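> @MW can you paste both from yesterday?
MW: sure, first one:
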Amino acid sequence: MSALPPDFIARLPRLVPADQLDAVLRAFTRRPTTFRVNTLKTTRDAVLAELTARAFQVEPVSWYADAFILRNKSKRELMETPLYTRGEIYVQSLSSMLPPLVLAPQPGEKVCDLTAAPGSKTTQMAALMNNTGEIVANDRSKIRLGKLVANLKLQGVKNVRTRLSNGEDLWKKFLEYFDRVLVDAPCSLEGRFEAGNAKSFGDWSLRKVEFLSAIQCHLLRSAVTMTKPGGVIVYSTCTLSPEENERVIDWILQKEPDRVHVEPIELPLENVLPGITHWEQQEFSEQVRHTVRVLPSELMEGFFLARLRKHG
């Protein structure tokens, strides 16, 4: 079995309580397939009826009525069903479903998905908004944007317009335009590491963590500038490193002290911790305690979430 990077392992005891550390270390493995119902095309009951008829055993997710855990068959078998090929279900990790729920876009609003491809959260937000309002889905990669466009079509999404541009600069086109902005930032993917899969962490390094942190800061500042006064910004990553999480939130609070504050997040999960307020030699704003760390578990990837409100 491939061992996780030593530098990564060495940092975990400072991020995870001692009584939870062994469980977290065991959680860096492949998880069950999870998916959500695409309510733009079908209903929960219709999906359950068809899956039952095809001998699929699924378990509901207590905190999200449209989400399920596949218990008896493979991801490939699920993706070979007509439900999948018709775009009536979307295979997505449970942690990935959290940012749209925390952002809570409303029907009729103007929303931006700043780093959108391949579209998991964009399509989820379109369903939450009942295909109304406007979502601008941006990505800097032409190849990834092509995958996003294909997913939008398959899922029956009608309220999205796509853009190919650097998220750091998008504010120049949309100054205080959006009611809500999602920044699901490119990150070092630590929450998705698999101990038996060297490819999942092969290019990880502390140097890369620092490099990504700088990009994340500028993406978040762009998002704040694009948001209307009174609007909401959600920042998320699937990594554990404070440099990419709490430090980024502390940075925006320092750069925009009179423009944003951190709002509490309530999640009905057991594997969550509040954000940390110090790391190595740096102290963070007390507001950072309102952010949320989702610890890796049997069902969920490691994740980080922050909800910011722009001052009116």
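MW: second:
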Amino acid sequence: MAITQAMCTQFKKDVMLGLHDLDSDTIKIALYTSSASLDATTDTYTTSNEVANGNGYATGGVTLANASVIENGTSGCFDADNPEWTSATFTARGALIYNDTDGDRAIAVLDFGGDFTVSSGTFRVVFPAQTANNAIIRID
């Protein structure tokens, strides 16, 4: 099993079909263990090897608050508040950003580069700046 960071191929197709409105749809992020198999071919949100429900985590993840889409140079860039889980005790290896409004369609897979563990604390995913070279989701 492996988690490979990528913009999901289905998302690229869906954008061309006008199926996503990233600043008004409910966009969520779910966390996964190192046993997950996620990559560019991931089409929809899955519970397979998601971090277990409980201990500060609820399956399905959290909604990305204050989502916005901007132009930056010749790129379209998405950003939202950094998602976090409080009073948490778990280990995560990666994440899936998906569109809860539109059939749980996968948008992007995040590979944390290793297991990250929190014990009775706050687990936070920090998104990079909303720029053409850095945005967590961007179309150049």
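> thanks! The chain has one domain: 6-139.
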